[in-house]
């Protein structure tokens, strides 16, 4: 879970430093990070492997089960491969499987295999959905973004009885009364192009488009007008040569850092809970020139994985001082 004491400190830092007024005031200048690395951490390449010629577009560590924090998965096309990070930089293949295409936002019960909710309809995304994230403390809220240039925040509160019912359902999963959630509680047009990644940072939202930056913003919802509100842009994390779509960032479990690649094969590691933003490290290797489609930060941030368009997987480990 996100440490809200840290988020409070971050907000206090904006107020003390004068970079931001109180978050209730809109239109203030955002704090922009410097691209000069603070060299707070040093990483080195510990492994590199190729799945094949197929581009890899997704990579992620498991944060759900503490027994398997060293397990990660990659996706290329409709193929999913599961790996484990071993000591001394080794990577072991655990399993691989092929899945059918599924382009909607759906909530599944991973224990029972039941599709509980489908987030679509009159207020849903008008094009493909590219990223979804659960709120770190509000179990009812999720955020999604996609090729309609928007970030949408959804609430499951009204449908929570169906979530509870999915744990005790004894009939076939296909017979469960799956419900549609048609209207989000907030729609944000922070970007003017495809939005390919979004993550919660407390009650704030991190999102990215093709503008060479990650944006941190606060949604200002209107209780009486679902879907409407305003956006307060808080901070910007520059990422040079990141002007093509489908390049996704990742965060460690405690949201201390975010890592993102670019189209030249470089990785930028940003400190999230500081204002203005601090660049922890810039990673590059002479043989990594392919666009990095996604990174994966380990539980404690000591390992960074990246998957590339040329089908390669790179592992960077922190250098212990």
TrEMBL record:
Segments annotated as WD repeats: 122-157
Gene (UniProt): LOC105033319
Source organism of this protein record: Elaeis guineensis var. tenera (Oil palm)
Entry keyword annotation includes Electron transport: no
PROSITE patterns, alphabetized: WD_REPEATS_2, WD_REPEATS_REGION
Family: Belongs to the WD repeat ESC family.
Annotated keywords: Repeat, Transcription, Transcription regulation, WD repeat
Coiled-coil ranges per UniProt: none
UniProt KW Transport keyword: no
Protein name: Polycomb group protein FIE2 isoform X4
């Amino acid at each position: 879970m996100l440490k809200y004491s840290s988020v409070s400190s971050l907000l206090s830092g904006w107020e003390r430093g004068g970079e931001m007024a109180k978050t209730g005031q809109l239109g203030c200048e955002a704090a922009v990070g410097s691209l000069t690395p603070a060299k707070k951490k040093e990483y080195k390449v510990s492994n590199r492997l190729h799945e094949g010629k197929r581009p890899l577009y997704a990579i992620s560590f498991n944060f759900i089960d503490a027994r398997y924090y060293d397990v990660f998965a990659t996706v290329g096309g409709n193929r999913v491969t599961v790996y484990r990070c071993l000591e001394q930089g080794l990577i072991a293949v655990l399993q691989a499987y092929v899945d059918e295409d599924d382009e909607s936002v759906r909530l599944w019960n991973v224990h029972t295999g039941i599709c509980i909710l489908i987030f679509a309809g009159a207020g849903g995304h008008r094009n493909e959905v590219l990223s979804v994230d659960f709120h770190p403390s509000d179990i009812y809220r999720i955020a999604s973004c996609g090729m309609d240039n928007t970030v949408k925040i959804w609430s499951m509160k009204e449908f929570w009885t169906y979530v509870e019912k999915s744990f005790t359902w004894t009939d076939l999963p296909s017979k469960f009364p799956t419900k549609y959630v048609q209207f989000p509680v907030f729609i944000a047009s922070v970007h003017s192009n495809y939005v390919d990644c979004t993550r919660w940072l407390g009650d704030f939202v991190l999102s990215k488009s093709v503008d060479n930056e990650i944006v941190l913003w606060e949604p200002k919802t209107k209780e009486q007008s679902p879907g409407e509100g305003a956006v307060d842009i808080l901070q910007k994390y520059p990422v040079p040569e990141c002007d093509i779509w489908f390049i996704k960032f990742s965060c460690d479990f405690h949201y201390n850092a975010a890592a993102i690649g670019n189209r030249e094969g470089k990785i930028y590691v940003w400190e999230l809970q500081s204002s203005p933003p601090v660049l922890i490290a810039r990673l590059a290797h002479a043989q990594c020139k392919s666009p990095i489609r996604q990174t994966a930060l380990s539980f404690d941030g000591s390992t960074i994985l990246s998957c590339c368009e040329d089908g390669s997987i790179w592992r960077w480990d922190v250098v212990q001082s």
